[in-house]
């Protein structure tokens, strides 16, 4: 176990930060804000290599890299740490601690043991629930009412290390994964600074995870977005919210795939309709029957079109696909 009591409280903590997307950038920003008080020094940033994006497929720097460059912080972008030169470069930084947040690489034991205090992770769930790649999405899909941030001491397992600090966050009935992501990103930065302060003060009490309470947040796939209208309305509603903004929910129509950008759970009694049948059309949206109950689709997108309200879609060229009695899904 890492000894967190051997720090000089008068010396800034030398930090290497490893992360890639917006979620991680929020934590890096929190550290940079705290660094202005001369308590922390971000000496280097590690992030994923630049990736092609957009129609032109030009190489784009990650949000973490962009933020690091704005603050003149050296950036390292190894494909992995299999090369001895990359491991040595990390060792040469002589870091006190490495902070990892949505980095996108599994760190080998040699890397985890390089900083004096090892590596800590900003994880978007209340461990041991939702270890793995998509904890925010899986929490929404599962219908969890609460989630949060865990600051964790990293080990060679997948999100299996000792927990150092937790901060809770409610999941609201209308939350999508995108909305919850943004809230957790801010909370992650707050929890990280609180955790770092506890580490500096030697006041952390690492807690083992209860293996009996674990579940795995599998990586999302595009195929998961297709709505199965035979499922109940509650499950479908959660999946639509949990898969926004990516990969997004969609359903088949005679003119191609229709994306579902927003939908509400309706308090309706079951009636004799087919699963996926449109039973009501109004300016508020279209009501679709499921295996049990109904949902109200309020925003959608047809092939080649843009995201729009149902009211706007009813004035468009695909309005005939949104009439009462039309079927959505594989039977369309």
Radius of gyration based on Cα positions? 23 Å
Superfamily at the CATH H level of the largest domain? Formyl transferase, N-terminal domain
User: What is the level-2 CATH architecture name of the largest domain?
Assistant: 3-Layer(aba) Sandwich
The CATH first-level class of the largest domain comes to Alpha Beta
First-last Cα distance: 58 Å
Low-confidence blocks of residues: none
The total count of strands amounts to 17
The helical percent reads 10-25%
Largest sheet: 7 strands, mixed
Backbone shape: elongated
How many structural domains can be distinguished in the coordinates?
A: 2
Sheet-strand content, in percent, reads 25-35%
Secondary-structure-based class equals alpha/beta
CATH topology of the largest domain: Rossmann fold
The largest sheet has its strands arranged as 5-2-1-6-7-9-10
Number of helices, where a helix is a run of at least 4 consecutive DSSP H or I residues: 8
Mean pLDDT: 94
The topology string of helices and strands comes to: EHEEEHEHEHEEHEEHEHEEEEEEH
Defining traits:
332 residues; alpha/beta; Rossmann fold; Methionyl-tRNA Fmet Formyltransferase, Chain A, domain 2; 2 domains; six-stranded antiparallel beta sheet; 17 strands; elongated; Formyl_trans_C_sf; transferase; EC 2.1.2.9; Fmt; Met-tRNA-FMT_N
């Amino acid at each position: 176990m890492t000894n967190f009591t051997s720090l000089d409280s008068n010396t800034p903590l030398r930090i290497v930060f490893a992360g890639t997307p917006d979620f991680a950038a929020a934590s890096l920003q929190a550290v940079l804000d705290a660094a202005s008080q001369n308590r922390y020094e971000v000496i280097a940033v590690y992030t994923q290599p630049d990736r092609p994006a957009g129609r032109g497929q030009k190489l784009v720097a990650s949000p973490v890299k962009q933020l690091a460059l704005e603050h003149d912080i050296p950036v390292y972008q190894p494909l992995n740490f299999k090369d001895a030169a990359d491991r040595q470069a990390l060792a040469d930084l002589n870091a006190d601690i490495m902070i990892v947040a949505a980095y996108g690489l599994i760190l080998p034991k040699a890397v985890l043991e390089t900083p004096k205090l090892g590596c800590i992770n900003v994880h978007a769930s209340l461990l041991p629930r939702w270890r793995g790649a998509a904890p925010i999405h899986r929490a929404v899909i599962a219908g969890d009412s609460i989630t949060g941030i865990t600051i964790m001491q990293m080990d060679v397992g997948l999100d299996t290390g000792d927990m150092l600090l937790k901060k809770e966050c409610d999941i609201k009935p209308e939350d999508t994964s995108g909305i919850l992501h943004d809230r957790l990103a801010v909370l992650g930065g707050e929890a990280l600074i609180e955790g770092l302060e506890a580490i500096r003060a030697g006041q952390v009490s690492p807690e083992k995870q209860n293996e009996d309470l674990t579940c795995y947040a599998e990586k999302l796939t595009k195929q998961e977005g297709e709505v199965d209208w035979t499922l109940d309305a509650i499950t479908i509603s959660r999946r639509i919210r949990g898969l926004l903004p990516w990969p997004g929910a969609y359903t088949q129509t005679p003119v191609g795939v229709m994306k579902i950008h927003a939908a509400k759970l309706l308090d309706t009694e079951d009636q004799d309709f087919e699963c996926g049948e449109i039973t009501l059309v109004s300016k508020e949206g279209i009501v679709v029957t499921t295996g049990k109950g109904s949902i109200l689709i309020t925003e959608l997108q047809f092939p080649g079109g843009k995201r729009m309200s149902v009211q706007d879609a009813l004035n468009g060229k695909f309005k005939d696909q949104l009439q009462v009695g039309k079927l959505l899904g594989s039977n369309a």
